[in-house]
Amino acid sequence: MVIIGSKVKEDLFGFSDALGKKIKVKNKTFRVIGILPKKGQVMIFNLDDLAIVPYLTAQKYLTGNDHYNSILV
Questions:
Q1: Could you tell me the pTM of the whole model?
Q2: Which tens digit of pLDDT belongs to each residue from 44-65?
Q3: Is 8 helix (H, G, I), strand (E, B) or coil?
Q4: Where are the beta strands (DSSP E) in the chain?
Q5: One-character DSSP codes across 13-27
């Protein structure tokens, strides 16, 4: 499962519906379950450029870590 920002959606799918479609991140396939509304820059993040996955999924499949490096709330 992945939630993507509006720019990621536009870059990957254009005007097509992205919900339910699959994308690859580091050779792992994720199903798009949500799209964030256009927000732009918020503090140090551009929310339109994000792809959000569950933290345990990120640890196991994307970073390979078994511990937290940092937590942003």
A1: 0.83
A2: 889 999 999 998 888 888 888 8
A3: helix
A4: 2-4, 22-25, 28-35, 41-42, 45-46, 51-52
A5: HTTS--TT-EEEETT
